[in-house]
């Protein structure tokens, strides 16, 4: 007899976990499928940043803050460690300081300007050479991406009644019947496809015409830095101001973009904007770059790593720049939507492509989706 569920979620990354959580909170019988022994995609290959400050004012910032509430709920439940570290955008150029000041004055996000001295008091990793100031936001969080997904799955299974099937590749869905590569079948009233960067196995025609593009990023991790305190803020350079949509509301952004394009066009070629997240161990994740579509290959570029390190050294200071790990991640991103949603057939929803904001947005986006699908809003606590 084919097992029957209320909801089946295909994909065990952070997007799929968010949907499994929202469904289980509504008292539904949920099964989760993941083709790997544990999530191995973008959900584990990132900074561990929960980054509301990068979302534009209005609905998307509110969605990011809703996600933040869910991360803090998971901490309260004892699921995983979550640091309320905040973030600092550093200004080493006058146009960066002007833009950050302009952004703060808009009053759309919780943030404040800091003097160079105040920046250095909050983070020993900011390079004081040429530092003009910075912008602090208290809303950002830090989780360990290497273990967060596994800890959430374990909690969903043990306390929320979710059934998890890992090492299970789903190859077809037909009339609410799911089939694995091994020939097993399951039925579910509602199926949510959260297939990450895999745009070909399920509903390839829909995903091919969705506008989604793949993005590859290269990242680095340093050896442990001495004298790092828990809660050290995330740091972002002025290069990030041209990457996050929250700053598009600032008229001075175009001037900053022109200056960077004229001084360092190679940074735009590889989509480089440098950031750092330092864990209580002192290990520091550094990055990153962005290559899209046909530019993506299986092979990492030493040129990108060298450019990132060049820019990182300008704005951050590490006592030991020894790099102990290098890796890349690939995620799907839509050019205009925060996530791609589509009804594939009756009872089947596709939910793919939160871009580089999966850790920041997935819980909030899934919460919004389930509110729309069921007409019932669930509170976090």
Please describe what this structure looks like.
The chain is α+β, with helices and mostly antiparallel strands and 381 residues long. It folds into two domains: 1-86 and 141-212 and 335-381, 3-Layer(bba) Sandwich (FAD/NAD(P)-binding domain); 94-138 and 213-333, D-Amino Acid Oxidase, Chain A, domain 2. 31% of the residues lie in helices and 25% in strands. It has helices at 14-25, 59-76, 94-106, 116-122, 145-159, 204-208, 253-263, 265-269, 302-315, 358-374; strands at residues 4-10, 30-33, 49-50, 87-91, 112-114, 133-137, 141-142, 163-165, 170-174, 177-180, 185-193, 213-222, 234-236, 275-278, 284-287, 291-292, 323-333, 340-345, 348-352. Strands 4, 5, 6, 12, 13, 14, 15, 16 and 17 form a nine-stranded mixed β-sheet that branches. A hairpin with a 4-residue loop joins strand 10 (177-180) and strand 11 (185-193). The mean pLDDT is 95.
Key terms:
alpha+beta; FAD-dependent_OxRdtase_HpnW; 10 helices; oxidoreductase; eight-stranded mixed beta sheet; nine-stranded mixed beta sheet; 2 domains; FAD-dep_OxRdtase; FAD/NAD(P)-binding domain; D-Amino Acid Oxidase, Chain A, domain 2; Hydroxyglutarate oxidase
Topology:
Blueprint: E1 4-10, H1 14-25, E2 30-33, E3 49-50, H2 59-76, E4 87-91, H3 94-106, E5 112-114, H4 116-122, E6 133-137, E7 141-142, H5 145-159, E8 163-165, E9 170-174, E10 177-180, E11 185-193, H6 204-208, E12 213-222, E13 234-236, H7 253-263, H8 265-269, E14 275-278, E15 284-287, E16 291-292, H9 302-315, E17 323-333, E18 340-345, E19 348-352, H10 358-374
Parallel strand pairs: 1-2, 1-11, 2-8, 4-13, 11-19
Antiparallel strand pairs: 3-7, 4-6, 5-6, 9-10, 10-11, 12-15, 12-16, 12-17, 13-14, 14-15, 18-19
Helix pairs in contact: 1-5, 1-10, 2-10
Family: Belongs to the DadA oxidoreductase family.
Domain FAD dependent oxidoreductase: 6-367
Pfam family, one: DAO
